[in-house]
Design brief:
heterodimer; A: 130 residues; alpha+beta; 4-stranded mixed β-sheet; 4 helices; 65% helix; elongated; B: 81 residues; mainly alpha; 3 helices
């Protein structure tokens, strides 16, 4: 009876431990999400200012004027994390990173505000009108 | 004379039958239409699943933007083609 209690206690402790642990993939996803979240306010400011825009194939780019060093770093970090996200989701959904990237471009356009800049497939930048 | 006439008439009938047979045979047409539907559904399915994943992952964007004053402008899909 005592052995059974000990076994049950060990099982309960193990269950609690495993329940609080995340898989490495989930960890990587959470860290990635946290980085996107952290950059969002600054990127949104640059979007509203027309400094950066979204491309048809899922990346963020400068629109006209050159970026400052800090802004360029921010854009590079965003695109590097997007690359990782597109790869991760493509692997999970058995598709290509390019497909995920283009779906994200569509999502960004839908969620974009009036006046935000979008680079079309022909290479032209256009402002969202409504 | 009659024999000759009936022979010609027989040949005529035979010829007409041959023309009719060939005519009907040549009018027969076959249309093979291969419609491959499965990949279209598969593509849609992948797009829907990817969209769902992206919406889930970037849910924090909506929460953040709701705290800002301006609402999204809306609008349809961007024309990428």
């Amino acid at each position: 009876m005592t052995r059974l209690r000990i076994a049950l206690c060990i099982l309960a402790v193990w269950a609690m431990f495993t329940a609080t642990q995340q898989s490495p993939a989930a960890d990587a996803r959470s860290e990635l999400q946290a980085r996107f979240k952290e950059r969002l306010p600054e990127l949104d400011k640059l979007r509203r200012a027309g400094t950066i825009g979204e491309t048809w194939d899922g990346w963020v780019e400068k629109v006209k004027a050159d970026l400052t060093e800090a802004q360029q770093k921010l854009v590079d970090a965003e695109n590097a994390d997007r690359r990782e996200l597109y790869r991760m989701l493509a692997e999970a959904e058995k598709t290509t990173p390019e497909v995920v990237a283009q779906r994200n471009a569509q999502r960004n356009y839908r969620n974009g505000l009036k006046g935000d800049w979008f680079k079309m497939k022909d290479g032209q930048w256009r402002q969202k009108e409504q | 004379m009659d024999n000759h006439s009936s022979h010609a008439s027989g040949l005529l009938k035979l010829g007409a039958a041959a023309v009719l047979t060939l005519g009907v045979g040549s009018c027969r047409s076959q249309h093979d239409v291969n419609v491959n539907v499965a990949p279209i559904f598969m593509t849609l399915d992948v797009n829907i699943r990817v969209d769902r994943q992206l919406d889930e992952f970037f849910a924090f964007e909506n929460q953040y933007r709701q705290t800002q004053s301006a609402p999204p402008a809306g609008g349809g899909d961007v024309q990428v083609q």
